[in-house]
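Handout, section 4.2: multi-component inputs.
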Amino acid sequence: MLIKKPEIPSSEITPERLYLSRREFIGASAVALAAGTIPAVAACDTADGAAEGAAAAPPAQQRDELTPLEDVTGYNNFYEFGTDKEDPARNAPRTLRPRPWTVVVDGLCDRPGRYAFDDFVRGVAQVDRTYRLRCVEAWSMVIPWRGIPLRDIVNRARPRAGARFVEFTTLHDPAQMPGQRRDVLDWPYVEGLRMDEAMHPLALLATGLYGRALPAQNGAPLRLVVPWKYGFKSIKSIVRIRFTDRQPRTAWNVSAPQEYGFYANVNPQVDHPRWSQARERRIGEFRRRPTLMFNGYNEVASLYSGMDLRRNY
Ligand SMILES: Nc1nc2c(c(=O)[nH]1)N[C@H]1C(S)=C(S)[C@@H](COP(=O)(O)O)O[C@H]1N2
Ligand SMILES: [Mo]
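Output:
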C-alpha cells in the first residue's frame, strides 16, 4: 500500500480560547494577528488553513467563516433521533449515553481490540481541524473539530494485507436512539471507506467541536469526519470499526443506490437525480455559492486518478 506523508502543518492547531464564540474567534484572531503574536496562517485556520495552508487555498475559500455554534449544534442530520433538522438537538441529549462507551476494532487486522472510550483515544495525539461540511442536500457549514487522525487508529490495529476497506457502525439501541424504532433506514447506520481513503491525513475521528466534548446531536462520543465527501459518509456515534476485503454495504447506498453511491465525493458536476449539486447554501448565508470539487480539498484527487467519478459517484 502506498502511504503518503502527512502534510498537516503544526499551524493547524488553534488555541481553545479562539473557539469561545464566532464573534470572539474573529475578534481574537484579528487582535492576535495585529499584535503579531500568531502567524497569518493561524488566523486563516478555517477550512483551508487546516490542511492546505492558507497560501495554497483558492481565494474563494479564504472567505470561509466558522458556522456559529448554535447552528452546528442545532441544525443536524441524525435520523436515529428523528428526520427534522431540529430533532437531534431536542432528542439526542435526553437519551444518548456517551459514557460508558465501547468501541470494537476487528476484522482483518493483527491487533483487534475492545476498548472503553478513554482507552480508545489514549496515547493518540489530539488535533484541531476546521473543515467545511457539505451535505448531499446542498447545504454546508464550517466546523472546528477536535479529534484523532483516523490513520493513527488504522495503524494501531495493524491491518492485514487483505484489508481493502474500513467499515464503521453506529450504536444500535432503540432505547438510546428512539428513531431506530421506525424503519427509515436499515439500522444500524453503516459507512465505509477504502483503505487509502481511511489513511488520508484529512480523515478524522472527531471527539469534540468548538473546544468542547462532542454534543450528542453531533455524534457523541466518536464520529467520523471525511471533509471531501458528502456529509452522510461522516457517520456518528461509532461503536465498531472493522477491516474487510469487501466494499461495505453502507446504509444510504443500500436504501437508495441510484441516489447515494459508496464514494460520495463532493462533485459539482455530478447531480443528485433529484437536484443539482453545482451550488450550496452555507448555513447563515442567503445567496448560494458554487460547490467545489472534493469540497475544495484537492489534495485527495490522486486517490481517484483513473476512476470514472460519474460512475463511481
Ligand atoms: N449515524 C448517523 N450518522 C450520520 C447521519 C445519521 O443520520 N446517522 N447523518 C449524516 C449526514 S446526512 C450528515 S450531513 C452529517 C451531519 O453532521 P452534523 O449534524 O454534525 O452537522 O452526519 C452524518 N452522519
Ligand atoms: Mo447530509
